[in-house]
Amino acid sequence: MKENQEKAVDRFKIATYNVNSIRSRLPIVLSWLEENRPNVFCMQETKVADDRFPAGAFSDIGYSIVFRGNKQYNGVAVASLGDPENVLLGLGAGGEEADEDRLIAVRHSGIWVINTYVPQGRGKENPQFAYKLRWYDRFRSFLERNWSPDDSLIWCGDLNVAPESIDVHDPKRLLGHVCFTPEVWDAFARVKSWGLEDLFRKFHPGEPQSYTFFDYRVPGAVERKLGWRIDHILSTPGLAQRCSGCAIDMNSRTADKPSDHVVLFADFML
Predict the structure, then answer these.
(1) What is the pLDDT of residues 200-216, one digit of tens each?
(2) Is beta strand 111-117 parallel, antiparallel or unpaired with respect to 103-108?
(3) How many Å is the Cα radius of gyration of the chain?
(4) Residue 6 falls within a domain, yes or no?
(5) Sign of the CA dihedral with 43 first, then 49, 54, and 58 last
(6) Which end of the chain is flanked by fewer CB atoms within 10 Å, N or C?
(7) Which residues pair with 207 in a beta bridge?
(8) Which residues lie across from 233 on neighbouring strands?
């Protein structure tokens, strides 16, 4: 599946958003799509069975949609301007569940986009934490099987890792949390070492208080800047060189009835 042929485009815009229920967040999503018209829009935690996914709302505004989900938890979806050239669902080989409700990869305009909702981990003593670490390793193998770092590829989504101390509001207190702990940092770094660059940090090196998640349960989390940067957009080196910017849209978190995450987006000049 390693492909180098690309369809020529001048501009490519991608966004990722943990919607925390697509049916609850549909007005925010549709408004963002109509205003910004990204080529690809990735969603996580759609929390809806496939037969109840609001696909028609996307087609009504000119977007193709691919989705896999379950009632009440997980779920991923990718909206694109025009049908994707290829689609992969789940991790495939690896000895465990394919996790189709955690990963969708689409090829659009010659660029592979992998949308993932990485397991959160729950607690270090919980079997889900070990599963999270294995998931990262399985994802690294998934990349190795299907692509080369020379390909044009983007990995994005809710990756459930805050990789640096500036990516959380209180690193001393939060150290050891399943999204902010050395075991997860190492697992994430192994995936990055395949050949991926963090695009937000490319444009905002060392910038503090740049968060993509603000817990509903923390009073005044947005106003007090009590957040985490756990949603990411990464790309292979050649594509990173063509990226013209990567930014957080805080308006998506301050909108009416928001998700606890924000929209993160990146632009490329191709």
Answers:
(1) 999 999 999 999 999 99
(2) antiparallel
(3) 17
(4) no
(5) positive
(6) N
(7) none
(8) 156
Burial 186-216 (b: 16+ CB within 10 A, else e): ebbeebeebbbbbbbbbebeeeeebbbbbee
Whether 5 is covered by a domain: the verdict is no
Closest among 11, 15, 25, 13 to 232, alpha carbons compared? 15
pTM value is 0.95
**Residues near 117 by beta carbon (within 8 Å), at least 6 away in sequence:** 18, 44, 45, 74, 75, 76, 101, 102, 103, 157, 158
- DSSP code for 205: T
Predicted pLDDT of residue 5: 40
Tokens (6 digits) for 137: 């390793």
The reply to whether 4 falls in a domain is no
Cα–Cα distance, 80 to 198 (Å, whole number): 22
Count how many domains the chain has: 1
Say if 1 falls within a structural domain.
Answer: no
CATH of residue 60's domain is 3.60.10.10
**What residue numbers bound the domain in which 101 lies?**
11-269
Q: Where are the beta strands (DSSP E) in the chain?
A: 11-18, 40-44, 64-70, 73-80, 86-89, 103-108, 111-117, 153-158, 197-198, 231-235, 243-249, 263-269
d(CA 33, CA 39): 9
Residue for token pair 């947005």: 222
Whether residue 66 has pLDDT greater than 90: yes
Of 98, 220, 214, 199, nearest to 155 (Cα)?
Answer: 199
